[in-house]
Amino acid sequence: MPLAFKQGGLLFGAIGTVAICIIYAHCVHLLVSTSHKASKRSKIPSLGFSETAADVFTNGPPRLRPLATFATRYVDVMILIQSYLAFCMYLIFIARTLRDVVINQQQVELDTRIYLLLLLVPVAVITQIRELKYLVPFSGVANAIMIASIGITLYFILREPITLVDRALWGEWSSLPSFISTVIFAIQGIEFILPIENKMQHPQHFTSWCGINNVSIGFLTVLYSVTGFFGYAQFGDQTQGSVTLNLPNNNALAESTRLLSAIAILLSLGLSYYVPMEITWQMIADRVPPKFHNWAQAAIRFNVLLVLVAVAIVAPQIEPFVGLAGSIGGGTLVVIYPVMLDVVFRWSTGDFGLFRWHLVKNFVLFMFGLFVLIVGTYFSVMEIVDSYR
């Protein structure tokens, strides 16, 4: 988030973060609501993201029905791209954190790529966990550790005098798409929404006014806004991809915070791996004899991990890839698809409200998502290219 405020400026960053979080929460409600209505219409207990897209287009206007297969596959591909990009960044963050701590404490300087190779062992174990109910405790511990890390990080950010004299209030026009993409990447996890909501004992608690979605997004909005604003205000142009990398090197508490953050990310990798692996396995499960399913899943999970580690080794930078993952995943999955599915579902009934306000609102959101996808991806790719020149 401090990186986002560095790209967007303090004033635009504060306003933009709140606006993007509201848009995200609304799009989550659209997705869950459409999924519920589609499953009720088709008399199916529950639907995932791509299954919702397939059902909505299959039963939608006749001219759109031939697009059902494409719409389904596109969701799966976008989830895979965004999830794997994010997974690579998590690996790089853990490796860079370990490298910095070892350099500071032991004066042993090894390349980040060495730590990426060393991470293979623990990550290979965590990513072999396939049941969501076993991954949730790991995620719960990771969240607790991360909140503690953010608290300590805020202590270091706020303990020194903060001046706003040379801090940008408004970012460059060329960096605003990267700001939007970075915030969306930080806040979003829409690929996990339906899998988790479908497995809840009381799914109605997810999208109610004081439900899980609104409460969690409200909490994150405040936490991320404070961290982003004061993080950039404190470190300015020196702000790195993760603010923990800006903490002092000669302080034991700061070092422990970096390690805690790395541990939290490590523990959450299993959950990050769950959705893309479910999609990947569904694509190939029918081609594998049932008696080999267990071994095949283990092999696929490990081989995909090897590929992701190889990608991280080739490009061990965090910052340029944050915006790319946010623009690809955020533009398509967070905004475009939820509003598109809502419009297609409503089309047959004409239920667009007074003066067709649902249609107008969704059109505005669709154009915003298209802007994030096209412009955000373009500037993120240019930033990646420039970083390797």
TrEMBL record:
Keywords: Membrane, Transmembrane, Transmembrane helix. It is found in: Membrane. GO terms for cellular component: vacuolar membrane. One of its GO terms (molecular function) is L-amino acid transmembrane transporter activity. Residues 1-381 form the Amino acid transporter transmembrane domain. The chain crosses the membrane at residues 12-32, 74-93, 113-129, 141-158, 178-196, 217-236, 256-275, 295-315, 321-341, 362-381. It is a multi-pass membrane protein. This is Proton-coupled amino acid transporter 1. It comes from Culex quinquefasciatus. The gene is 6046930.
